[in-house]
Amino acid sequence: MPMNILYVEDNKINAMVMDKMLSKNDSNVIIAENGSQALAVVKEKNLDLILVDINLGLNQMDGCELLQRFKKLDLLQNIPVFAVTAYAMPGDKQRFLNLGFDNYFSKPVNFDKLLSVISKIRNNLGTTQMN
Amino acid sequence: MPFTAEQFGILAEKTLHFLLILKKNGRIVAFNNRCGVLFPIEDNKKKAIYITDYIIDEDVKILNQSISSLSKQNSILSQSFSFATEKHGVLALKFNLTLHNDLIYAAGIDTTEEYKEHRALMTISKLTKTGAWYYNPKNNEMFWSKGCYLIKDLDPKTKMTRELGASFYPKENRKRIESYLNNLIKTRKPYEYTEKIITKKGNVKWVKVVAQPVIYKNEVIYVNGTIADVTDRHNYIEKLKYNEETKHLALKGIQSGLFDHHIEKNEVFYSADFKKMLGLPLDQDFVPEETFRKMIHPEDVEGAFERHLKNLKQPGNQYYNYYRLSDKKGTYKYYEVHGFQRKNEKNETIRMIGNLIDVHQRRLNEKTIAESKNRLQAIVNNGFAYTVLLDPEGQILMTDEKSLKIIKRDFNVDPSKTPCLFINVMPLNFKNTFLHEFNEALKGNMVKKEIERATNEGNVQWLESKYTPIYDQENEINSVLVSFHDITEQKLAEIAIKESHLKEQELNSLKSNILSNFSHEIRTPLNGIMTVSKLLLDEKEPEERKKLLEYLEESKDRLLDTINNLSNFSDLEAIRNNLNLKEVDANYTIETSFREYKHLADAKNLEYHLELDHTCPQINIDEDLLRTAVNNIIHNAIKYTSNGRIIVKINSKKSKNNVYISVTDTGIGIDKENLKKVFDPFMQESIGINRKYEGTGIGLSLSKRYIEILGGRIKVKSKMGKGTEFTIIIPKCL
């Protein structure tokens, strides 16, 4: 069964290439350009993973704020949320993990690593379903 | 042989005696011719006349007493009565009164002359409080006149003896006083003494007793004496003695010279002690004014004389002067004169009494104190601190010159002349803490406090105030020294260090911000490039490949933009040296920039206006630089405005030489603190993790530098939440 992955990203190129990359690996990618679109999506779809860019553009809710909004929603309690961002200075990773992201990927994205993490999640999901 | 009736009748009429026969009620039964002078003629014809109608009032009582005291056993007595007659005035008659057959036979002789003498003596005795006495040593008989009884507060009917007389003297003196009288009898010489007595009523009196012997055949047969009450005089003399003694001691004590200046006579009297001091001849009572003037110190003569005249002219009786006088050795000493002026009815001083006081030591002390005070004041004035000395009430005792000047200028009082509380003349912002610190100091604590204030010129000044308690010899705090030390320079240096620290911190965070921004701005397109490359490796579909290549192109452009921006910024010098100046239409250049960002404004649904200048101003300029500068500002305005409008305006009417290009937005605005830094490179209104705006943050900084290269300048006005207006002022011709 393909996984449902939400990717919140304002940069269209980055969003499209992520979609292409993950789709090839048996995932169904839903793109949201900003926080409000993302919040609409999580209410409609059954998601397995959420990827969030941090800088979501001028005068927009940023990825950190969006995470806090997610955390207030009961239905997302068990869904992992990863930060995918170009903020990659020393200390940035720890900062985002401290804010509550379950994982952190800097841009340019290391897809080998991302795909292996996704497949682990997929395996766990399978186990859970079997149980 | 007895008188015949005829003989008796003649005798009764021819005799000098006044003969009367009275009834016991005083009615006159018969009288001889001589008695006619006692009664008025018309009364002789009356049927009944009474003797009491003719004698003086005070004798009426005595007459009645005399008549009633007569009886068969005691039928004769002798008594004087005074008659007030019309023709002869008062006649004093001495009568023998005899009772016979209930009638009183009175025979009187005229004692008027003797009586007058007696009366006078009585009066003297009364007025001088004097009494007379006599003593008969033969039979030890003692007689006291009425005056003696009065002095001793004793009833005059008391029988007098020598022993009783002596009993009024204090016991311890009696023997001595007895011996005076015994001695007189032995030596036949008169004596007198003044002694204390205690009267019957217990009063203390002083009496002067004089005694005179009457000698017969070389023997004292009689002693006549007087006694006088001299209490008042005695007390007066004692008091005088006391005053004299006090005065003497006082004069000795104050080392002063008493003087009495007779202005009219031009002479001065000096007390003996003083003459000794000054070496003046003792046998001369008066010292001529001229002599005295020569003794005054030459430097003091003029001033002393001026003060002297001034003293004489001024109203009132007080006199005060001072000068140095030479003593007998020729050395000068300081003297003060305190006197009392006596004035005549024209208010001219005619005499002056007073004393000259030797104040030499005091003057020397004052001089020493004044000198050390001057030295202290000099130290205080040359210090760097403002110094005020306060008494425990907070009143100013002393200040340095600077503080004095400030207080005089700001409060119009002179604390060195008028008593003045420090709290009333201190700068306003000292008042809050002053009382607390001052009370601490009065408890014996030294207190330090820093105060910030504005000077008269409006500059900021920091003062360190220090309160130091000062103790007197009894170890009590008798004053508090308050000093204000200007620590402005020190403080400014501290602030400068603090500020530079802050600046350093800011720069540090700016540096990491720059790095973070560039890293972010490079990584974002790089992500696209790398992912697309990875996808291209596997993508076979030509359409998909074409799309991916387009993505690649776009990401590459953005990466290049970022890098170009950075290199432009670091290459200002090259730009300055390669200006491409051309005459251009300002309207056209700005409109091009305006159009370039229209799609961004539209995407955010902002009102977006351009107002051209219809005079079509021409400017000689490097068009690329101006356009880049304006672009950045317009882009910035759109970036920071979520709704409302952006207005771009060109105006050349304000000035002959300049063109004004303004960009006004209704965006978030910039606060005061950041307005100063808005042109600093890499500064963004919102920084750090919550940074919401994309870009490197060097746009505005670059605009400013470009405009400056073009000879213009940028101004910015902003209000938080309302919007911002940037104005570029550019010369028409560089």
Question: What layout of secondary structure does this protein have?
Answer:
The complex is a heterodimer of chains A (131) and B (734).
Chain A: E1 3-8, H1 12-23, E2 27-32, H2 35-44, E3 49-52, H3 63-71, E4 81-85, H4 92-99, E5 103-106, H5 111-130
Parallel strand pairs in A: 1-2, 1-3, 3-4, 4-5
Chain B: H1 5-14, E1 18-23, E2 28-31, H2 41-44, H3 57-69, E3 76-84, E4 90-100, E5 103-110, H4 112-127, E6 130-136, E7 141-144, H5 146-151, H6 162-166, H7 171-187, E8 191-198, E9 204-216, E10 219-229, H8 231-254, E11 256-262, E12 267-270, H9 272-278, E13 286-288, H10 289-295, H11 298-313, E14 318-326, E15 332-343, E16 349-358, H12 360-382, E17 385-390, E18 396-399, H13 401-411, H14 431-442, E19 447-454, E20 460-471, E21 477-486, H15 488-538, H16 542-570, H17 572-577, E22 581-585, H18 586-596, H19 598-603, E23 607-611, E24 618-622, H20 623-639, E25 645-651, E26 658-665, H21 672-675, H22 699-709, E27 713-719, E28 723-731
Parallel strand pairs in B: 23-25
Antiparallel strand pairs in B: 1-2, 1-5, 3-4, 4-5, 6-7, 6-10, 8-9, 9-10, 11-12, 11-16, 12-13, 14-15, 15-16, 17-18, 17-21, 19-20, 20-21, 22-24, 25-26, 26-28, 27-28
Helix pairs in contact in B: 15-16, 18-20, 20-22
Structure in words:
The complex is a heterodimer of chains A (131) and B (734). Chain A is of the alpha/beta class and 131 residues long. In chain A, 45% of the residues lie in helices and 19% in strands. Chain A has five helices and five strands. Chain A has helices spanning 12-23, 35-44, 63-71, 92-99, 111-130; strands at 3-8, 27-32, 49-52, 81-85, 103-106. Chain A has a five-stranded parallel β-sheet, with helices on both faces. In chain A, strand 1, helix 1 and strand 2 (27-32) form a beta-alpha-beta unit. The longest helix of chain A is centred in the C-terminal third of the chain and has 20 residues, at 111-130. Chain B has 734 residues and is of the alpha+beta class. Chain B is 42% helix and 29% strand. Chain B contains 22 helices and 28 strands. In chain B, strands 13-12-11-16-15-14 form a six-stranded antiparallel β-sheet, with helices on both faces. In chain B, helix 15 (488-538) packs antiparallel against helix 16 and helix 20 packs antiparallel against helix 22. Chain B starts with a helix and ends with a strand. At the A-B interface, helix 1 of A face helix 15 and helix 16 of B.
